[in-house]
Design brief:
Order of helices and strands: EEEEEEHEEEHE
CATH architecture: Beta Barrel
GO cellular component, one term: extracellular region
Strand order of the largest sheet: 1-2-3-9-8-7-4-10
Family: Belongs to the YkuD family.
Keywords: Cell shape, Cell wall biogenesis/degradation, Glycosyltransferase, Hydrolase, Peptidoglycan synthesis, Transferase
Structural class: mainly beta
GO molecular function, one term: glycosyltransferase activity
Strand content: 35-45%
CATH superfamily: L,D-transpeptidase catalytic domain-like
Number of domains: 1
Oligomer: single chain
InterPro entries: LD-transpeptidase (IPR050979), LD_TPept_cat_dom (IPR005490), Transpep_catalytic_dom (IPR038063)
Length: 169
C-alpha cells in the first residue's frame, strides 16, 4: 500500500474506513469503547486524534486465532473456549497496534495510546459490531481485519474522531 492511504474511524458511526486522500476505498463496522471517547490511562475509553500504526501482528495466523500479550497462543476461539473464560475481552485474528501522533493529547504521560495497548483487532463479539462495547480498542470482524490487514503498514496514519464524518485528512 502506498503513501497517501490512511484509516479513519468514526466513533459516532462505529465505522472504519480505508481512505486515499478524500476517497473511501472500503468501510467496515467496528466497535469502540463502551466507556466512550477519552485518552487517559485506565479510562477504558477509545483515544481520539491522529495516530499511526506502530506494528501489525498476526500475518498468516488462522481466522479467530487467540492472542495474549500480542502473541498467538496456538488456540482458536471457540464457544467452548469462550465458555471456559467468561467475560474475557478476546483479541483475535490480527492486531494493528496504534501509537499516538499528538504529543500531550494521545502521546506521552498519562495519555499515551501505545502504552495503553490500544489496537485494532478481531473480536469474538462480531454480533455487537456497530455498538460501542469494547474496553478501549477498536474491534473488527475477523474476516474484515484479515481483509484490511495487508493494506496497512507501520507508520500509516489513523484518525479516530467522534464526528459522524470520516473525512478530515
Amino acid at each position: 500500500m502506498s503513501q497517501g492511504h490512511w484509516l479513519s474511524i468514526s466513533i459516532a458511526r462505529q465505522v472504519l474506513e480505508l481512505r486515499k486522500a478524500e476517497r473511501c476505498l472500503g468501510a467496515w463496522p467496528v466497535s469502540t469503547a463502551a466507556a466512550g471517547a477519552g485518552e487517559c490511562n485506565g479510562s477504558g475509553q477509545t483515544p481520539r486524534g491522529w495516530h499511526r500504526i506502530r506494528l501489525g501482528i498476526g500475518a498468516g495466523a488462522p481466522l479467530r486465532s487467540v492472542f495474549v500479550g500480542r502473541r498467538a497462543t496456538g488456540q482458536t476461539c471457540s464457544p467452548e473456549l469462550m465458555a471456559a473464560n467468561p467475560g474475557r475481552d478476546w483479541i483475535l485474528t490480527r492486531i494493528l497496534w496504534l501509537t499516538g501522533a499528538e504529543s500531550g493529547r494521545n502521546r506521552g504521560g498519562d495519555v499515551d495510546t501505545l502504552r495503553r495497548l490500544i489496537y485494532i483487532h478481531g473480536t469474538s463479539d462480531e454480533d455487537r459490531l456497530g455498538e460501542p462495547v469494547s474496553a478501549g480498542c477498536i474491534r473488527m470482524g475477523n474476516a474484515d481485519i484479515c481483509s484490511l490487514f495487508p493494506k496497512c503498514y507501520p507508520g500509516m496514519p489513523v484518525l479516530i474522531s467522534e464526528d459522524s464524518s470520516c473525512s478530515g485528512h
